[in-house]
Amino acid sequence: MNRINPNxxxxxxxxxxxxxxxxxxxxxxxxxxxxxDNVTAVEIEAVxxxxxxxxxxxxxxxxxxxxxxxx
Length: 71
Hints:
mainly beta, five-stranded antiparallel β-sheet, 0% helix
């Protein structure tokens, strides 16, 4: 399990453990926050294709899916 501080996610780098469509490296380009200013979701963008998707930030804690940094 990756230990993550949700307030430091913006512009962080991630590697997909099981890449699809040659998309391996991702960058967090946005954070969605609730009314109490807590991070609820992140927008990640594939470096290769610039495709983006929204994820619950807790999904990045799953080490079988996401690795911290670019590898």
